[in-house]
Protein backbone atom coordinates (compact mmCIF):
# COMPACT_ATOMS: atom_id res chain seq x y z
CA UNK A 1 0.00 0.00 0.00
CA UNK A 2 1.24 3.46 -0.89
CA UNK A 3 2.12 5.81 1.93
CA UNK A 4 0.27 9.10 2.20
CA UNK A 5 3.39 11.05 1.27
CA UNK A 6 3.97 9.02 -1.90
CA UNK A 7 0.32 9.29 -2.91
CA UNK A 8 0.28 13.04 -2.29
CA UNK A 9 3.45 13.60 -4.32
CA UNK A 10 2.14 11.62 -7.29
CA UNK A 11 -1.52 12.61 -7.29
CA UNK A 12 -1.50 16.18 -5.97
CA UNK A 13 1.91 17.84 -5.86
CA UNK A 14 3.05 16.85 -9.35
CA UNK A 15 -0.24 17.88 -10.95
CA UNK A 16 -0.24 21.24 -9.21
CA UNK A 17 3.41 21.86 -10.04
CA UNK A 18 2.81 20.81 -13.65
CA UNK A 19 -0.09 23.24 -13.95
CA UNK A 20 2.05 26.08 -12.56
CA UNK A 21 4.88 25.30 -15.00
CA UNK A 22 2.44 25.04 -17.92
CA UNK A 23 1.04 28.50 -17.25
CA UNK A 24 4.57 29.86 -16.88
CA UNK A 25 5.48 28.50 -20.33
CA UNK A 26 2.27 29.91 -21.81
CA UNK A 27 3.08 33.34 -20.39
CA UNK A 28 6.57 33.07 -21.86
CA UNK A 29 5.18 33.73 -25.36
CA UNK A 30 3.83 37.26 -24.67
CA UNK A 31 6.85 38.01 -22.47
CA UNK A 32 9.24 37.13 -25.30
CA UNK A 33 7.23 39.27 -27.70
CA UNK A 34 7.37 42.21 -25.30
CA UNK A 35 11.11 41.69 -24.82
CA UNK A 36 11.75 41.82 -28.57
CA UNK A 37 9.58 44.91 -28.90
CA UNK A 38 11.55 46.78 -26.22
CA UNK A 39 15.00 45.42 -27.09
CA UNK A 40 14.72 46.50 -30.74
CA UNK A 41 13.38 49.94 -29.79
CA UNK A 42 14.53 52.60 -32.26
CA UNK A 43 13.09 56.05 -31.42
CA UNK A 44 14.52 57.79 -34.50
CA UNK A 45 12.89 55.32 -36.95
CA UNK A 46 9.60 54.19 -35.37
CA UNK A 47 8.03 52.84 -38.59
CA UNK A 48 11.08 50.73 -39.41
CA UNK A 49 11.20 49.58 -35.76
CA UNK A 50 7.61 48.27 -35.87
CA UNK A 51 8.12 46.65 -39.29
CA UNK A 52 11.33 44.89 -38.28
CA UNK A 53 9.69 43.73 -35.06
CA UNK A 54 6.69 42.20 -36.85
CA UNK A 55 8.88 40.35 -39.34
CA UNK A 56 11.17 39.14 -36.55
CA UNK A 57 8.33 37.74 -34.43
CA UNK A 58 7.08 35.40 -37.16
CA UNK A 59 10.55 34.41 -38.39
CA UNK A 60 11.76 30.82 -38.02
CA UNK A 61 14.87 31.65 -35.87
CA UNK A 62 12.72 33.48 -33.30
CA UNK A 63 10.19 30.64 -33.16
CA UNK A 64 12.99 28.10 -32.67
CA UNK A 65 14.51 30.27 -29.95
CA UNK A 66 11.12 30.47 -28.27
CA UNK A 67 10.75 26.68 -28.33
CA UNK A 68 14.25 26.34 -26.86
CA UNK A 69 13.43 28.87 -24.12
CA UNK A 70 10.26 26.94 -23.26
CA UNK A 71 12.28 23.76 -22.79
CA UNK A 72 14.82 25.58 -20.60
CA UNK A 73 11.97 27.13 -18.59
CA UNK A 74 10.39 23.73 -17.90
CA UNK A 75 13.68 22.17 -16.77
CA UNK A 76 14.53 25.14 -14.56
CA UNK A 77 11.19 25.21 -12.76
CA UNK A 78 11.18 21.43 -12.26
CA UNK A 79 14.51 21.76 -10.45
CA UNK A 80 13.34 24.88 -8.58
CA UNK A 81 10.26 23.08 -7.26
CA UNK A 82 12.49 21.05 -4.93
CA UNK A 83 13.88 24.15 -3.23
CA UNK A 84 10.61 25.55 -1.87
CA UNK A 85 9.63 25.04 1.75
CA UNK A 86 6.86 25.97 4.16
CA UNK A 87 9.37 26.69 6.98
CA UNK A 88 12.54 28.51 5.85
CA UNK A 89 15.82 28.24 7.73
CA UNK A 90 16.50 31.16 10.08
CA UNK A 91 20.25 31.73 10.59
CA UNK A 92 21.29 33.20 13.93
CA UNK A 93 24.28 35.11 12.48
CA UNK A 94 25.30 36.55 9.12
CA UNK A 95 28.09 33.98 8.92
CA UNK A 96 25.53 31.20 9.33
CA UNK A 97 23.49 32.74 6.51
CA UNK A 98 26.50 32.63 4.20
CA UNK A 99 27.37 29.08 5.24
CA UNK A 100 23.78 28.13 4.46
CA UNK A 101 24.53 28.82 0.79
CA UNK A 102 27.41 26.32 0.89
CA UNK A 103 25.18 23.29 1.37
CA UNK A 104 25.21 20.73 -1.43
CA UNK A 105 21.60 21.40 -2.46
CA UNK A 106 22.15 25.17 -2.48
CA UNK A 107 25.37 24.92 -4.49
CA UNK A 108 23.67 22.68 -7.03
CA UNK A 109 20.78 25.10 -7.40
CA UNK A 110 23.20 28.03 -7.66
CA UNK A 111 25.01 26.28 -10.51
CA UNK A 112 21.68 25.63 -12.25
CA UNK A 113 20.69 29.30 -11.92
CA UNK A 114 24.03 30.54 -13.27
CA UNK A 115 24.06 28.14 -16.23
CA UNK A 116 20.40 28.79 -17.06
CA UNK A 117 20.92 32.55 -16.85
CA UNK A 118 23.87 32.32 -19.23
CA UNK A 119 21.90 30.16 -21.68
CA UNK A 120 18.94 32.56 -21.71
CA UNK A 121 21.27 35.53 -22.23
CA UNK A 122 22.96 33.68 -25.10
CA UNK A 123 19.52 33.03 -26.63
CA UNK A 124 18.75 36.74 -26.29
CA UNK A 125 21.90 37.61 -28.26
CA UNK A 126 20.81 35.21 -31.01
CA UNK A 127 17.36 36.83 -31.20
CA UNK A 128 18.82 40.36 -31.21
CA UNK A 129 21.35 39.68 -33.95
CA UNK A 130 23.60 42.48 -35.16
CA UNK A 131 26.65 43.16 -33.04
CA UNK A 132 25.40 40.81 -30.28
CA UNK A 133 24.80 37.73 -32.43
CA UNK A 134 28.07 35.78 -32.41
CA UNK A 135 31.08 35.30 -30.18
CA UNK A 136 33.44 36.26 -33.00
CA UNK A 137 33.53 38.53 -36.04
CA UNK A 138 36.01 39.29 -38.80
CA UNK A 139 38.61 41.76 -37.63
CA UNK A 140 38.99 43.09 -41.16
CA UNK A 141 37.14 42.29 -44.33
CA UNK A 142 40.42 41.89 -46.19
CA UNK A 143 41.80 39.28 -43.75
CA UNK A 144 40.64 35.94 -42.46
CA UNK A 145 41.46 36.73 -38.81
CA UNK A 146 38.62 36.69 -36.27
CA UNK A 147 38.24 38.90 -33.19
CA UNK A 148 36.39 38.32 -29.94
CA UNK A 149 32.95 39.95 -29.83
CA UNK A 150 32.94 41.52 -26.37
CA UNK A 151 29.33 42.73 -26.65
CA UNK A 152 28.17 39.13 -26.96
CA UNK A 153 30.43 38.09 -24.10
CA UNK A 154 29.21 40.97 -21.92
CA UNK A 155 25.55 39.92 -22.15
CA UNK A 156 26.33 36.24 -21.53
CA UNK A 157 28.39 37.12 -18.45
CA UNK A 158 25.54 39.31 -17.25
CA UNK A 159 23.13 36.38 -17.62
CA UNK A 160 25.40 34.21 -15.44
CA UNK A 161 25.69 37.04 -12.92
CA UNK A 162 21.90 37.50 -12.86
CA UNK A 163 21.40 33.79 -12.20
CA UNK A 164 23.79 33.90 -9.24
CA UNK A 165 22.07 36.96 -7.79
CA UNK A 166 18.67 35.30 -8.18
CA UNK A 167 20.03 32.25 -6.35
CA UNK A 168 21.24 34.29 -3.37
CA UNK A 169 17.96 36.18 -3.18
CA UNK A 170 16.03 32.91 -3.42
CA UNK A 171 17.53 31.72 -0.13
CA UNK A 172 18.69 34.80 1.79
CA UNK A 173 15.50 36.77 1.16
CA UNK A 174 13.25 33.72 1.62
CA UNK A 175 11.81 33.68 -1.90
CA UNK A 176 11.58 29.92 -1.45
CA UNK A 177 9.12 30.39 1.42
CA UNK A 178 5.58 29.22 0.63
CA UNK A 179 3.34 31.41 2.76
CA UNK A 180 -0.33 30.49 2.89
CA UNK A 181 -2.69 33.40 2.14
CA UNK A 182 -4.89 34.66 4.96
CA UNK A 183 -7.91 34.59 2.64
CA UNK A 184 -8.31 31.90 0.02
CA UNK A 185 -9.22 33.31 -3.40
CA UNK A 186 -9.60 31.76 -6.82
CA UNK A 187 -6.24 31.23 -8.51
CA UNK A 188 -7.04 33.60 -11.37
CA UNK A 189 -7.57 36.49 -8.95
CA UNK A 190 -4.39 35.69 -7.04
CA UNK A 191 -2.33 35.56 -10.23
CA UNK A 192 -3.86 38.76 -11.59
CA UNK A 193 -3.11 40.58 -8.34
CA UNK A 194 0.55 39.48 -8.42
CA UNK A 195 1.53 40.20 -12.05
CA UNK A 196 2.17 43.93 -11.63
CA UNK A 197 3.80 43.76 -8.14
CA UNK A 198 6.20 41.04 -9.30
CA UNK A 199 7.07 43.10 -12.40
CA UNK A 200 7.72 46.24 -10.33
CA UNK A 201 9.84 44.24 -7.89
CA UNK A 202 11.85 42.75 -10.78
CA UNK A 203 12.44 46.15 -12.40
CA UNK A 204 13.69 47.64 -9.14
CA UNK A 205 15.90 44.67 -8.40
CA UNK A 206 17.48 44.66 -11.88
CA UNK A 207 18.20 48.39 -11.61
CA UNK A 208 19.78 47.81 -8.20
CA UNK A 209 21.99 44.87 -9.18
CA UNK A 210 23.10 46.06 -12.63
CA UNK A 211 25.41 48.71 -11.18
CA UNK A 212 27.36 46.06 -9.29
CA UNK A 213 27.87 44.07 -12.47
CA UNK A 214 29.25 47.14 -14.24
CA UNK A 215 31.68 47.73 -11.38
CA UNK A 216 32.78 44.09 -11.37
CA UNK A 217 33.25 44.03 -15.14
CA UNK A 218 35.23 47.26 -15.04
CA UNK A 219 37.58 45.82 -12.41
CA UNK A 220 37.82 42.16 -13.42
CA UNK A 221 36.24 41.87 -16.87
CA UNK A 222 39.60 41.64 -18.62
CA UNK A 223 40.46 38.37 -16.84
CA UNK A 224 37.81 36.07 -18.43
CA UNK A 225 37.96 38.06 -21.68
CA UNK A 226 41.72 37.54 -22.08
CA UNK A 227 41.43 33.88 -21.04
CA UNK A 228 38.75 33.18 -23.66
CA UNK A 229 40.72 35.08 -26.28
CA UNK A 230 43.86 33.10 -25.53
CA UNK A 231 42.20 29.66 -25.52
CA UNK A 232 39.96 30.25 -28.54
CA UNK A 233 42.62 31.90 -30.75
CA UNK A 234 40.44 34.98 -31.11
CA UNK A 235 42.07 38.37 -31.23
CA UNK A 236 41.04 41.28 -29.05
CA UNK A 237 39.49 44.14 -30.95
CA UNK A 238 41.54 47.33 -31.01
CA UNK A 239 38.50 49.49 -31.78
CA UNK A 240 36.66 49.11 -28.48
CA UNK A 241 37.05 47.61 -25.01
CA UNK A 242 34.21 47.33 -22.51
CA UNK A 243 36.36 47.24 -19.38
CA UNK A 244 37.01 50.96 -19.70
CA UNK A 245 34.88 53.90 -18.58
CA UNK A 246 34.31 55.00 -22.18
CA UNK A 247 33.33 51.49 -23.27
CA UNK A 248 30.81 51.07 -20.45
CA UNK A 249 29.14 54.42 -21.22
CA UNK A 250 27.36 52.80 -24.17
CA UNK A 251 23.68 53.65 -23.57
CA UNK A 252 22.43 51.08 -26.08
CA UNK A 253 24.40 48.34 -24.33
CA UNK A 254 22.99 49.45 -20.98
CA UNK A 255 19.45 49.24 -22.35
CA UNK A 256 20.06 45.76 -23.79
CA UNK A 257 21.56 44.62 -20.50
CA UNK A 258 18.58 45.93 -18.55
CA UNK A 259 16.06 44.27 -20.89
CA UNK A 260 17.99 41.01 -20.74
CA UNK A 261 18.01 41.08 -16.92
CA UNK A 262 14.26 41.66 -16.74
CA UNK A 263 13.61 38.95 -19.34
CA UNK A 264 15.61 36.45 -17.27
CA UNK A 265 14.25 37.26 -13.84
CA UNK A 266 10.60 38.08 -14.46
CA UNK A 267 9.58 34.64 -15.83
CA UNK A 268 11.49 33.02 -12.96
CA UNK A 269 9.80 35.17 -10.31
CA UNK A 270 6.41 34.76 -11.96
CA UNK A 271 6.88 30.99 -12.13
CA UNK A 272 7.78 30.90 -8.43
CA UNK A 273 4.64 32.91 -7.63
CA UNK A 274 2.47 30.51 -9.66
CA UNK A 275 4.08 27.55 -7.90
CA UNK A 276 3.22 29.02 -4.49
CA UNK A 277 -0.35 29.88 -5.50
CA UNK A 278 -1.06 26.38 -6.83
CA UNK A 279 0.56 24.45 -3.98
CA UNK A 280 -0.97 26.52 -1.17
CA UNK A 281 -4.48 26.00 -2.52
CA UNK A 282 -6.91 24.33 -0.13
CA UNK A 283 -7.02 20.54 -0.39
CA UNK A 284 -9.81 18.53 1.22
CA UNK A 285 -8.85 15.29 3.00
CA UNK A 286 -11.51 12.70 3.90
CA UNK A 287 -12.30 12.33 7.61
CA UNK A 288 -12.67 8.57 7.22
CA UNK A 289 -12.66 6.20 4.27
CA UNK A 290 -14.48 2.94 3.59
CA UNK A 291 -11.88 1.85 1.00
CA UNK A 292 -8.81 -0.05 2.15
CA UNK A 293 -6.56 1.79 -0.31
CA UNK A 294 -7.49 5.12 1.33
CA UNK A 295 -7.42 4.00 4.95
CA UNK A 296 -4.08 5.76 5.52
CA UNK A 297 -4.92 8.87 3.48
CA UNK A 298 -7.38 10.58 5.80
CA UNK A 299 -7.20 13.94 7.56
CA UNK A 300 -5.66 12.54 10.73
CA UNK A 301 -2.86 10.93 8.72
CA UNK A 302 -2.10 14.26 7.04
CA UNK A 303 -2.00 16.00 10.43
CA UNK A 304 0.44 13.37 11.72
CA UNK A 305 2.77 13.63 8.72
CA UNK A 306 6.43 14.61 8.89
CA UNK A 307 6.77 17.95 10.73
CA UNK A 308 7.26 21.07 8.63
CA UNK A 309 6.12 19.38 5.43
CA UNK A 310 3.71 20.79 2.86
CA UNK A 311 1.41 17.82 3.41
CA UNK A 312 1.09 18.53 7.13
CA UNK A 313 0.43 22.21 6.45
CA UNK A 314 -2.34 21.36 3.99
CA UNK A 315 -3.82 19.00 6.58
CA UNK A 316 -4.02 21.68 9.29
CA UNK A 317 -5.27 24.18 6.73
CA UNK A 318 -8.09 21.79 5.81
CA UNK A 319 -8.89 21.20 9.49
CA UNK A 320 -9.17 24.94 10.09
CA UNK A 321 -11.37 25.28 7.01
CA UNK A 322 -13.79 22.50 7.98
CA UNK A 323 -14.07 23.83 11.55
CA UNK A 324 -15.56 27.06 10.18
CA UNK A 325 -17.29 26.26 6.91
CA UNK A 326 -18.35 22.60 6.73
CA UNK A 327 -21.27 21.39 8.85
CA UNK A 328 -21.33 17.90 7.31
CA UNK A 329 -17.63 17.27 7.92
CA UNK A 330 -17.88 18.58 11.49
CA UNK A 331 -20.76 16.18 12.06
CA UNK A 332 -18.58 13.32 10.80
CA UNK A 333 -15.78 14.45 13.10
CA UNK A 334 -18.10 14.44 16.15
CA UNK A 335 -19.57 11.02 15.30
CA UNK A 336 -19.00 7.81 17.28
CA UNK A 337 -17.55 4.61 15.91
CA UNK A 338 -19.87 1.69 15.16
CA UNK A 339 -19.76 -0.72 16.86
CA UNK A 340 -18.25 0.46 20.12
CA UNK A 341 -19.47 4.04 20.32
CA UNK A 342 -16.04 5.67 20.71
CA UNK A 343 -15.12 9.16 19.38
CA UNK A 344 -12.00 7.96 17.55
CA UNK A 345 -12.02 10.74 14.94
CA UNK A 346 -12.22 13.52 17.49
CA UNK A 347 -9.69 11.93 19.85
CA UNK A 348 -7.09 11.60 17.10
CA UNK A 349 -7.55 15.18 15.87
CA UNK A 350 -7.48 16.52 19.43
CA UNK A 351 -4.32 14.57 20.26
CA UNK A 352 -2.41 15.94 17.25
CA UNK A 353 -3.55 19.54 17.83
CA UNK A 354 -2.66 19.49 21.53
CA UNK A 355 0.69 17.91 20.64
CA UNK A 356 1.75 20.74 18.29
CA UNK A 357 0.50 23.37 20.76
CA UNK A 358 2.45 21.74 23.59
CA UNK A 359 5.57 21.50 21.40
CA UNK A 360 5.61 25.24 20.73
CA UNK A 361 4.72 25.97 24.35
CA UNK A 362 7.80 24.06 25.54
CA UNK A 363 10.06 25.91 23.10
CA UNK A 364 8.77 29.33 24.14
CA UNK A 365 9.04 28.43 27.81
CA UNK A 366 12.63 27.26 27.34
CA UNK A 367 13.61 30.52 25.64
CA UNK A 368 11.88 32.52 28.38
CA UNK A 369 13.91 30.69 31.02
CA UNK A 370 17.12 31.38 29.10
CA UNK A 371 16.28 35.09 28.91
CA UNK A 372 15.56 35.23 32.64
CA UNK A 373 18.66 33.25 33.60
CA UNK A 374 20.95 35.36 31.39
CA UNK A 375 20.07 38.49 33.37
CA UNK A 376 22.42 39.82 36.07
CA UNK A 377 22.12 38.03 39.43
CA UNK A 378 23.03 40.00 42.54
CA UNK A 379 24.76 38.11 45.33
CA UNK A 380 24.85 39.67 48.82
CA UNK A 381 28.35 40.16 50.21
CA UNK A 382 29.56 37.22 52.28
CA UNK A 383 26.81 34.90 51.05
CA UNK A 384 27.94 31.48 49.91
CA UNK A 385 27.13 30.37 46.42
CA UNK A 386 24.35 27.81 46.39
CA UNK A 387 22.17 26.28 43.71
CA UNK A 388 18.81 27.92 43.14
CA UNK A 389 15.67 25.85 43.04
CA UNK A 390 12.66 26.22 40.86
CA UNK A 391 9.11 26.18 42.16
CA UNK A 392 8.67 22.47 41.61
CA UNK A 393 11.81 21.68 43.59
CA UNK A 394 14.07 20.83 40.67
CA UNK A 395 17.50 22.40 40.53
CA UNK A 396 18.11 24.87 37.74
CA UNK A 397 20.62 23.37 35.30
CA UNK A 398 22.26 26.70 34.62
CA UNK A 399 22.95 27.51 38.28
CA UNK A 400 24.06 23.96 39.04
CA UNK A 401 26.53 24.18 36.15
CA UNK A 402 28.08 27.34 37.52
CA UNK A 403 28.00 25.85 41.03
CA UNK A 404 29.98 22.80 39.94
CA UNK A 405 32.45 24.90 37.99
CA UNK A 406 33.22 27.11 40.97
CA UNK A 407 33.21 24.41 43.69
CA UNK A 408 36.76 23.07 44.31
CA UNK A 409 37.27 19.33 43.82
CA UNK A 410 38.99 17.71 46.81
CA UNK A 411 40.54 14.30 46.15
CA UNK A 412 43.05 12.07 47.93
CA UNK A 413 45.96 10.26 46.30
CA UNK A 414 48.00 10.55 43.11
CA UNK A 415 45.22 9.30 40.83
CA UNK A 416 42.89 11.97 42.12
CA UNK A 417 45.66 14.49 41.60
CA UNK A 418 45.74 13.55 37.92
CA UNK A 419 42.00 14.09 37.75
CA UNK A 420 42.48 17.58 39.18
CA UNK A 421 45.17 18.32 36.58
CA UNK A 422 43.00 17.15 33.69
CA UNK A 423 40.04 19.13 34.99
CA UNK A 424 42.21 22.22 35.34
CA UNK A 425 43.54 21.84 31.78
CA UNK A 426 40.03 21.48 30.36
CA UNK A 427 38.90 24.54 32.29
CA UNK A 428 41.86 26.52 30.94
CA UNK A 429 41.05 25.41 27.37
CA UNK A 430 37.41 26.47 27.72
CA UNK A 431 38.45 29.79 29.26
CA UNK A 432 40.94 30.44 26.44
CA UNK A 433 38.32 29.62 23.79
CA UNK A 434 35.76 31.89 25.45
CA UNK A 435 38.26 34.75 25.70
CA UNK A 436 39.32 34.28 22.06
CA UNK A 437 35.71 34.42 20.80
CA UNK A 438 34.92 37.45 22.94
CA UNK A 439 38.04 39.26 21.69
CA UNK A 440 37.20 38.45 18.08
CA UNK A 441 33.67 39.76 18.54
CA UNK A 442 35.07 43.09 19.66
CA UNK A 443 36.48 43.68 16.18
CA UNK A 444 33.90 45.45 14.07
CA UNK A 445 34.23 43.31 10.92
CA UNK A 446 34.16 40.00 12.77
CA UNK A 447 31.38 41.20 15.06
CA UNK A 448 29.33 42.01 11.96
CA UNK A 449 29.42 38.34 10.88
CA UNK A 450 29.46 36.64 14.30
CA UNK A 451 27.02 38.97 16.05
CA UNK A 452 23.55 37.53 16.53
CA UNK A 453 20.93 38.98 14.23
CA UNK A 454 18.12 40.95 15.90
CA UNK A 455 15.24 38.77 17.07
CA UNK A 456 16.86 35.74 15.39
CA UNK A 457 15.98 33.28 18.16
CA UNK A 458 12.41 34.51 18.33
CA UNK A 459 12.08 34.24 14.54
CA UNK A 460 13.48 30.70 14.63
CA UNK A 461 10.79 29.64 17.10
CA UNK A 462 7.79 31.32 15.50
CA UNK A 463 8.64 30.86 11.81
CA UNK A 464 6.69 27.59 11.88
CA UNK A 465 3.87 28.89 14.10
CA UNK A 466 1.31 28.84 11.27
CA UNK A 467 0.57 25.23 12.25
CA UNK A 468 -0.26 26.33 15.81
CA UNK A 469 -2.41 29.21 14.52
CA UNK A 470 -4.52 26.77 12.51
CA UNK A 471 -4.63 24.25 15.38
CA UNK A 472 -5.84 26.88 17.87
CA UNK A 473 -8.42 28.28 15.44
CA UNK A 474 -9.67 24.80 14.57
CA UNK A 475 -10.02 23.69 18.19
CA UNK A 476 -11.82 26.86 19.23
CA UNK A 477 -14.19 26.79 16.24
CA UNK A 478 -14.94 23.09 16.71
CA UNK A 479 -15.49 23.61 20.43
CA UNK A 480 -17.82 26.54 19.81
CA UNK A 481 -19.73 24.59 17.14
CA UNK A 482 -20.03 21.55 19.40
CA UNK A 483 -22.32 23.49 21.75
CA UNK A 484 -25.06 23.15 19.12
CA UNK A 485 -23.87 20.26 16.92
CA UNK A 486 -22.20 17.73 19.24
CA UNK A 487 -25.11 15.51 20.27
CA UNK A 488 -22.86 13.02 22.10
CA UNK A 489 -20.82 15.53 24.11
CA UNK A 490 -17.45 14.19 22.92
CA UNK A 491 -15.92 17.67 22.69
CA UNK A 492 -17.14 18.88 26.08
CA UNK A 493 -15.22 16.07 27.77
CA UNK A 494 -12.00 17.49 26.29
CA UNK A 495 -12.80 21.11 27.10
CA UNK A 496 -10.51 21.39 30.19
CA UNK A 497 -7.50 20.15 28.19
CA UNK A 498 -8.18 22.60 25.35
CA UNK A 499 -8.62 25.62 27.62
CA UNK A 500 -5.56 24.75 29.72
CA UNK A 501 -3.34 24.30 26.66
CA UNK A 502 -4.46 27.60 25.10
CA UNK A 503 -4.06 29.60 28.32
CA UNK A 504 -0.62 28.14 28.98
CA UNK A 505 0.64 29.01 25.49
CA UNK A 506 -0.95 32.46 25.67
CA UNK A 507 0.76 33.19 28.98
CA UNK A 508 4.19 32.10 27.73
CA UNK A 509 3.87 34.12 24.52
CA UNK A 510 2.89 37.22 26.51
CA UNK A 511 5.99 36.75 28.67
CA UNK A 512 8.13 36.27 25.58
CA UNK A 513 6.84 39.44 23.92
CA UNK A 514 7.40 41.44 27.10
CA UNK A 515 10.97 40.13 27.30
CA UNK A 516 11.52 41.02 23.63
CA UNK A 517 10.48 44.59 24.40
CA UNK A 518 8.28 44.93 21.33
CA UNK A 519 11.27 45.36 19.01
CA UNK A 520 9.57 43.44 16.23
CA UNK A 521 6.55 45.73 16.16
CA UNK A 522 8.36 49.06 16.15
CA UNK A 523 9.73 50.08 12.78
CA UNK A 524 11.48 47.02 11.48
CA UNK A 525 13.78 48.07 8.66
CA UNK A 526 14.13 44.49 7.44
CA UNK A 527 10.90 43.40 5.77
CA UNK A 528 11.86 39.73 6.07
CA UNK A 529 12.34 40.02 9.84
CA UNK A 530 9.07 41.93 10.16
CA UNK A 531 7.11 39.33 8.19
CA UNK A 532 8.62 36.48 10.22
CA UNK A 533 7.85 38.18 13.53
CA UNK A 534 4.29 38.92 12.40
CA UNK A 535 3.48 35.25 13.01
CA UNK A 536 4.02 35.55 16.74
CA UNK A 537 1.62 38.49 16.99
CA UNK A 538 -0.84 36.60 14.81
CA UNK A 539 -0.62 33.63 17.17
CA UNK A 540 -1.06 35.87 20.22
CA UNK A 541 -4.19 37.48 18.76
CA UNK A 542 -5.51 34.10 17.60
CA UNK A 543 -5.15 32.65 21.09
CA UNK A 544 -7.06 35.52 22.68
CA UNK A 545 -9.85 35.50 20.10
CA UNK A 546 -10.12 31.69 20.35
CA UNK A 547 -10.45 31.77 24.14
CA UNK A 548 -13.10 34.47 23.87
CA UNK A 549 -14.93 32.40 21.24
CA UNK A 550 -15.12 29.41 23.58
CA UNK A 551 -16.21 31.53 26.55
CA UNK A 552 -18.88 33.30 24.52
CA UNK A 553 -20.26 29.94 23.38
CA UNK A 554 -20.39 28.22 26.78
CA UNK A 555 -20.79 31.24 29.04
CA UNK A 556 -20.74 30.59 32.78
CA UNK A 557 -20.93 26.84 32.23
CA UNK A 558 -17.13 26.84 31.95
CA UNK A 559 -16.86 27.57 35.67
CA UNK A 560 -18.43 24.17 36.39
CA UNK A 561 -15.53 22.39 34.66
CA UNK A 562 -12.77 20.78 36.68
CA UNK A 563 -10.06 23.38 36.18
CA UNK A 564 -7.08 24.32 38.32
CA UNK A 565 -7.19 27.45 40.43
CA UNK A 566 -4.80 29.35 38.13
CA UNK A 567 -6.82 28.46 35.04
CA UNK A 568 -10.08 29.50 36.71
CA UNK A 569 -8.55 32.83 37.66
CA UNK A 570 -7.47 33.49 34.07
CA UNK A 571 -10.83 32.34 32.73
CA UNK A 572 -12.62 34.83 34.97
CA UNK A 573 -10.46 37.66 33.62
CA UNK A 574 -11.51 36.66 30.10
CA UNK A 575 -15.15 36.47 31.17
CA UNK A 576 -14.86 40.01 32.52
CA UNK A 577 -13.20 41.10 29.23
CA UNK A 578 -10.05 42.26 30.99
CA UNK A 579 -7.61 40.56 28.60
Number of helices: 22
Q: How many domains comprise the coordinates? A: 3
Spatial order of strands in the largest sheet: 1-2
SSE order, one letter for each helix or strand: HHHHHEEHHHHHHHHHHHHHHHHH
Shape: elongated
Mean pLDDT: 84
Structural class: mainly alpha
* Beta strand count: 2
Largest sheet: 2 strands, antiparallel
Gyration radius, rounded: 31 Å
What is the helix fraction of residues, given as a range? 55-70%
**Amino-to-carboxy terminus distance:** 50 Å
Question: Strand portion, in percent?
Answer: under 5%
Low-pLDDT runs: 377-420, 520-525
Transmembrane segments: 20-41, 53-79, 151-168, 195-220
Protein name: Nucleoporin NDC1
Pfam families: Ndc1_Nup
Subcellular location: Nucleus membrane; Nucleus, Nuclear pore complex
Topology, please?
Blueprint: H1 4-39, H2 46-57, H3 60-80, H4 94-100, H5 104-128, E1 136-138, E2 146-148, H6 150-172, H7 187-220, H8 222-232, H9 245-248, H10 251-279, H11 299-303, H12 310-325, H13 327-334, H14 344-373, H15 397-406, H16 414-442, H17 444-450, H18 456-462, H19 466-485, H20 495-516, H21 527-554, H22 565-575
Antiparallel strand pairs: 1-2
Helix pairs in contact: 1-3, 1-10, 3-5, 5-6, 6-7, 6-10, 7-10, 12-19, 14-18, 14-19, 14-20, 18-21, 19-21, 20-21
Concise account of the structure shown:
The chain is an all-alpha fold and 579 residues long. It has three domains: 4-176 and 183-279, no CATH class; 354-371 and 457-575, no CATH class; 403-451. Helices cover 68% and strands 1% of the residues.
Structure description:
With 579 residues, the protein is mostly helical. It has 3 domains: 4-176 and 183-279, no CATH class; 354-371 and 457-575, no CATH class; 403-451. The protein is built from 22 helices and 2 strands. The chain has helices spanning 4-39, 46-57, 60-80, 94-100, 104-128, 150-172, 187-220, 222-232, 245-248, 251-279, 299-303, 310-325, 327-334, 344-373, 397-406, 414-442, 444-450, 456-462, 466-485, 495-516, 527-554, 565-575; strands spanning 136-138, 146-148. The protein has a two-stranded antiparallel sheet with strand order 1-2. A hairpin with a 7-residue loop joins β1 and β2 (146-148). α18 packs across α21. The longest helix is centred in the first third of the chain and has 36 residues, at 4-39. It is elongated and about 100 Å long. It starts with a helix and ends with a helix.
